From TrEMBL:
The keyword Cytoplasm applies. Belongs to the TBCB family. GO terms for cellular component: cell cortex; cytosol; microtubule plus-end; nucleus. GO terms for molecular function: alpha-tubulin binding; microtubule plus-end binding. SMART domains: CAP_GLY (SM01052). PROSITE patterns: CAP_GLY_1, CAP_GLY_2. CDD domains: Ubl_TBCB. InterPro entries: CAP-Gly_dom_sf (IPR036859), CAP-Gly_domain (IPR000938), TBCB_Ubl (IPR045172), Ubiquitin-like_dom (IPR000626), Ubiquitin-like_domsf (IPR029071). This is CAP-Gly domain-containing protein. Transmembrane segments: none annotated. PANTHER family: DYNACTIN 1-RELATED MICROTUBULE-BINDING (PTHR18916), TUBULIN-FOLDING COFACTOR B (PTHR18916:SF85). Keywords: Chaperone, Cytoplasm.
Amino acid sequence: MATRSTVNVFVVSPDTRSERRFDLSLTVAQLKSKLELITGIPIQNQEISVLPSEDATQPLCVLADDSRPLGFYGVHDWQVLKVADLNPATSFTGQLSDTSQVEKFELSETEYAQRQDTVLAYKQRNKIGRFADKPAEESQEPQNVDIPIGARCEVESTEEDFRKRGTVQYVGQTEFAKGIWVGIEYDEPIGKNDGSVKGKRYFQCPPNCGVFVKPERVKVGDYPVEEINFDDEEM
């Protein structure tokens, strides 16, 4: 059996999350160069850990030797490369999230409420958000959604040429949000859950293959299983 030369992984950092394909012959130093473009973390600030999943607390290993190839560490498909920023104060991302160096201007709640040049005042004047006129009570009758359980489908995606295909496993109301939701088991682990949300199970599927979307984002049809091609040069 031929040996695989590439690996599909999730890349997560303090400000980013993406799915990528990397060549296993890449050295850790070369990998860091690519990850700088993806995460915004400078090469010298990166610490890369390999995790079995995003909710894992203990790493399988740390890519500590810049001269070693990625394959040396035994990285497998759909594992997680967690990129930590060892010095956020000097990173581009750190400048956005580290507020310790920013001089703060503070107002009390009473002072803020009395000002007329604030977002709060604008929302009050224009009846936006919680200041909007309350609509009539929404009907509690379920929507008529013609999406059968077991149907093959494709979920609308904002990414060009990225098809999210799967099988409909649930259609109905949920406890996590109002309205009708469609539960889908994706063909690939690109989802959010395993068919349960906040401790409530609606259907069963492998981890990270389940997702709930609104009916208008679902197209039912003859959608065969299609292998996702991750390009490591995509931003």
